[in-house]
């Protein structure tokens, strides 16, 4: 991994098509903007049309000649995910950045009845990746990058209670959803390798970056004091979104990125240039990866085309 890697090191992306989920703000907006700056055609996959259109215009204003376009995607609604994939206008997709997410929300459910954090952070992206897989296969050396978090260390997934129906703690649920992101990449990378595909599946995390993600949960509950404390922490301790996006941009574009790698900030997983990041051992568990995959297929109804099925006898407790 190159020391001191920065946006100046992003290779030319001309002729490549990228999808960035949650590209209307924060890490996603910076990621989309810098990919467009290097010549990629970037699809901004966002839930809110006004905010997505605003981001589209902002990128075009900051990057003259940028190919950036908004397309609506609500990861909390599988019908929206299916519509996005079915109407995707390009025959091939070179890069899918699964960036969108929610954090530490009060208990809620998606349109399909999934616990919100698990449904948005994992299941929505699982379905999206599977539905776009034929477009990824049509490209040469495509990549899938999922944005996890150092907070995955809070909790392993609970295969017996994926939707937190028995007990809900917002931060534990968030940690489980971020562990699910890493387990998904682990299993996807294994299946792609076994199938002989040149698609690279990798993960990244931003460290502590100042985005709107941290304040949404307390704002939903009307906790004004807590919201001010979080905002103060963002100003004092967090790195800007521009720095937080670097690990994602590295995983998405740098030469030699290895399948199932996890890239994050170099300084204590908090801030700094992209570097290999620590990950909990449970995110490398083959059996857990297979079981999560099987459960995700069952919950979403999305089966990945031409990828290796579960190996007989491997799925066990």
Radius of gyration over all CA atoms, rounded: 18 Å
Number of beta strands? 8
Q: Kindly state the mean pLDDT as a whole number?
A: 89
Beta fraction: 5-15%
Largest sheet, if any? 8 strands, mixed
Q: What is the share of helical residues?
A: 40-55%
Task: Explain the layout of strands and helices.
Elements: E1 17-21, H1 26-37, E2 41-46, H2 49-62, E3 67-72, H3 78-86, E4 95-98, H4 116-137, E5 143-147, H5 170-194, E6 200-204, H6 213-220, H7 224-236, H8 241-244, H9 246-253, E7 262-267, E8 271-276, H10 286-300
Parallel strand pairs: 1-2, 1-4, 2-3, 4-5, 5-6, 6-7
Antiparallel strand pairs: 7-8
Question: Can you tell me about this structure?
Answer:
With about 325 residues, this protein is an alpha/beta fold. The chain has ten helices and eight strands. It has helices at about 25-35, 50-60, 80-85, 115-135, 170-195, 215-220, 225-235, 240-245, 245-255, 285-300, and strands spanning about 15-20, 40-45, 65-70, 95-100, 145, 200-205, 260-265, 270-275. The chain has an eight-stranded mixed β-sheet, with helices on both faces. It is globular and about 50 Å long. The model is unreliable at about 215-220, about 225-235 and about 310-315 (pLDDT under 50).
Task: Give a quick set of tags describing it.
317 residues; alpha/beta; 10 helices; globular; disordered C terminus
Short structural description:
The protein is of the alpha/beta class and 317 residues long. The chain contains 10 helices and 8 strands. It has an 8-stranded mixed sheet, sandwiched between helices.
């Amino acid at each position: 991994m190159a020391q001191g890697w920065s946006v100046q090191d992003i290779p030319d992306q001309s002729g490549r098509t990228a999808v960035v989920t949650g590209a209307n703000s924060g890490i996603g907006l910076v990621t989309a903007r810098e990919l467009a700056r290097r010549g990629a055609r970037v699809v901004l996959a966002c839930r809110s049309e006004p905010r997505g259109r605003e981001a589209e215009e902002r990128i075009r204003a900051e990057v003259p000649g940028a190919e950036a376009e908004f397309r609506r995607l609500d990861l909390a609604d599988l019908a929206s995910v299916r519509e996005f994939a079915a109407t995707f206008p390009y025959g091939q997709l070179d890069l899918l950045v699964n960036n969108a997410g929610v954090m530490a929300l009060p208990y809620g459910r998606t349109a399909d009845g999934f616990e919100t954090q698990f449904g948005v952070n994992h299941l929505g992206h699982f379905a999206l990746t599977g539905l776009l897989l034929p477009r990824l296969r049509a490209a040469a050396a495509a990549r899938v990058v999922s944005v996890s978090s150092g907070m995955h260390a809070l909790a392993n997934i609970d295969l017996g209670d994926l939707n937190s129906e028995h007990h809900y703690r917002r931060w534990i649920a968030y940690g489980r959803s971020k562990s699910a992101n890493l387990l998904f990449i682990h299993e996807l990378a294994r299946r792609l390798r076994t199938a002989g595909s040149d698609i690279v599946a990798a993960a990244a995390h931003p460290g502590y970056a100042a985005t709107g993600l941290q304040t949404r949960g307390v704002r939903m509950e009307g906790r004004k004091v807590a919201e001010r404390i979080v905002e103060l922490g963002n100003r004092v301790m967090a790195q800007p979104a521009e720095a937080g996006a670097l690990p994602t941009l590295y995983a998405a574009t740098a030469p030699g990125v290895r399948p199932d790698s996890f890239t994050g900030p170099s300084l204590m997983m908090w801030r700094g240039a992209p570097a290999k990041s620590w990950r909990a051992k449970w995110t490398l568990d083959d059996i857990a990866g297979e079981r999560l995959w099987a459960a995700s297929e069952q919950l979403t109804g999305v089966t990945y085309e031409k990828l290796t099925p579960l190996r007989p006898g491997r799925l066990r407790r």
